[in-house]
Amino acid sequence: MVVTIKDIAEKVGVSVTTISRVLNNRGYLSDDLKKKVYEAMEEMNYQPNELARSLSRKKSNVIGLIIPDISHPFFGQMTKHIEFYAYKHGYKLMLCNSLLNKKKEKEYIDLLRASQVDGIIMGSHTMSVKEYMSIKLPLVTLDRQISKSIPCISSDNYSGGILATKLLLRKKCRKIAYLSGNLRLNLLAKQRHDAFIEQVSGEDIGFVVKQTDLNGFKYKEYENLVRQLFEEHPDIDGVFASSDILALQVIKECRRLGKAVPDQVKVVGYDGIQIGGTDDLSTVEQPIKKMGELAVKYLLRQIAGEEIPLETILPVKLLEKGTT
Amino acid sequence: MVVTIKDIAEKVGVSVTTISRVLNNRGYLSDDLKKKVYEAMEEMNYQPNELARSLSRKKSNVIGLIIPDISHPFFGQMTKHIEFYAYKHGYKLMLCNSLLNKKKEKEYIDLLRASQVDGIIMGSHTMSVKEYMSIKLPLVTLDRQISKSIPCISSDNYSGGILATKLLLRKKCRKIAYLSGNLRLNLLAKQRHDAFIEQVSGEDIGFVVKQTDLNGFKYKEYENLVRQLFEEHPDIDGVFASSDILALQVIKECRRLGKAVPDQVKVVGYDGIQIGGTDDLSTVEQPIKKMGELAVKYLLRQIAGEEIPLETILPVKLLEKGTT
DNA sequence: ATGAAAGCGCTAACAT
DNA sequence: ATGTTAGCGCTTTCAT
């Protein structure tokens, strides 16, 4: 059998309460006792049972993370930072991939609650506002402002949109495409689109908006989208892609069509993901690390019952590289 | 307060045992009773406490996943599939990023054990064989054969190495570089290197092997490595990169140096990750999805006390694309 | 400073 | 078919 606190108590010749006390370092313990207890634990290879602890304390030190797709570099990098800070503060991470499937997202929320997680970071948003409101668990959202009462971490999508569009205008593009995933998802990312529209509307400039119908991240789908864009609008000379991954597709398609980047077509991406192949891409960099850090920080503060800002919008940065 | 099984029992007018029974659908329950219980649960918005269940059953339905870095696309994609199958079988995933830090990896193992996970999938391997042997928990490793007694899932690294090297030879490369991360990590990936050496040794061919010293995945480090390679060996006309990410760095450096790919330098990668920018890359594709699926499957079988194969080597596939 | 005992929410013999 | 009872391993009042 597995060694429990009781075995240690018997071995040392004290009560379980005392063992629990030294385990949690509460109350007055003589150094001699402490030493004996630690020795016994060492000797018997004791490992505390977190499940029992959590049940008794009503606190699990686990946080749930729900995102659309961990294999997408943006979320991969975000998750890396979230894990880092969670671990640093003694929290474990339960990873939930929704694949932007509403049913799975809902099931995961119930599962997380049943698992008694102390809080949830939501980066996937397929449900209705009402459903989110009924979660009743410490919550921080990424990139979607669900309601005034749920804290949200995002970066400045509107400014990012302006920066990217202005860059293309400054580079004298005459017909610009805005390319994105599904805009109906109510994400703050839509503001990039709005900023784009606003900027190009005033100018004597052609523009076109194209989005995928799918909610997922299918590279094949992206490929078709890009191909279609250039078929329908061969005179495009500037593309604002709402993710770096999409931008890479655009560059690839340009290469296939023999269009020189940036001479014939200028391309600006979004996200600032770090990955081979994006080094030379002009893009709007989101502070992914900072976003992950704050998401954890605010969630933990909320768990601790402290007040936290309900809206956090971090600055973005335009990176001008070789594709514009 | 939170609703418990006891509240339901009182409401329905039966004992908690009965409620537990319908919750787990064990024994004989009259339909009428079931219905009443479900109604009460619905009405009171009851949510079972998985912590209590796990403690009592001595089974948590959580599996731990330890990998070096979730932001690396190979692991991101692997994790996506692992999560998918785990979820499908009613298991939750605890994500642990080791960052190839030995201390963190060890701490995570203890943490997972303390959290009573039912098993661990290990994709990070910085500790000694002896330490792994002492884990005493259902275990499946990815890409490292720790001992004959611990099941390992991998793909055929040796054949992959042969395929990639032969491709470069077939394309008449005269001086080939093998580029990789740290080879000391005892990973099966080292077999790619061995296969490479074996193939080029017999031929009248120049070759050079270069590896990073670092244990992490630093893109900057990769960049330096590649730059250095071409400075020291400007006559390289073929590169076998042991990951697609590295291969992308090579291609980028070639572009910077004005070397045409594939005309002047042929590049073959490894992994077959799906991400913008790798579409045109010649590479050796690992069956990432299948590997993830089997890792989960074998872990669950092991948890169930069944016998499973101790060594699983899946076939790889050469994808000949535009960079060779 | 240390212990007894109740309890966290649920499961599982064993009874009836 | 349903109930009684004793845990699961740990924490936490309340005593002493």
Give an overview in words.
Chains A, B: Keywords: DNA-binding, Repressor, Transcription, Transcription regulation. Chains A, B: This is LacI family DNA-binding transcriptional regulator. Chains A, B: It comes from Paenibacillus ehimensis. Two copies of one chain form a homodimer. The radius of gyration of chain A is 25 Å and the shape is elongated. The model of chain A has no long low-confidence stretch (mean pLDDT 92). Chain A contains twelve helices and twelve strands. The first copy, chain A, is of the alpha/beta class and 324 residues long. Chain A has a six-stranded parallel beta sheet, with helices on both faces. A six-stranded mixed beta sheet of chain A has the order 7-6-8-9-10-12, with helices on both faces. Helix content of chain A is 44%, strand content 18%. Chains A and B meet through helix 4, helix 5, strand 2, helix 6 and helix 10 of A and helix 4, helix 5, strand 2, helix 6 and helix 10 of B. The structure holds a DNA duplex (16 and 16 nucleotides).
